[in-house]
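Please complete every field before forwarding. Incomplete forms are returned to the sender.

SECTION A: IDENTIFIERS
Entry label: holo-163
Bound molecule: zinc ion
Molecule representation: SMILES string

SECTION B: INPUTS
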Amino acid sequence: MAGNSPCASCKLLRRRCSKDCIFAPFFPPHDPHKFALVHKVFGASNVSKMLQELPFHQRADAVSSLAYEANARMSDPVYGCVGAISYLQNQVSQLQVQLALAQAEILCIQMQQENTPLLDYQQMDTDGNSFPFNNSTVTQLMNIAPSTNNIAQEPFIRESIRI
Ligand SMILES: [Zn+2]
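SECTION C: PREDICTED COMPLEX
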């Protein structure tokens, strides 16, 4: 594997790349930046230990994961990967609120078009806009959506709009 040119790890660590070098399959010489980052964040000997504890077929995934985490830690020294995860979770929450409000609007428009007896429930708000839900229904929706981190709960939100 090593051939004449040492792997990126051995090159950086200035050591001889042996035939059974644990880094060689995952840190090729043409991508020195990958190992440099992983080494800076985790340390070469820690990475070596982690890889030794894994069966060979899982090592490539582990190296990808370590490289991703090292990258995230470099660009966000405080939160690392967690920064990206919480940013995405916030986005999911905000989109769930928007979805719930859009579904409520759609239902409202459908009810107005169908001119069903449900119109009896319709009430005028203070601005004179007709809206079939009272403010507490909307408040409920706003409270439900941000706490759900799972899109699987979305049917529950839809059900509560129909009530
Ligand atoms: Zn090597």
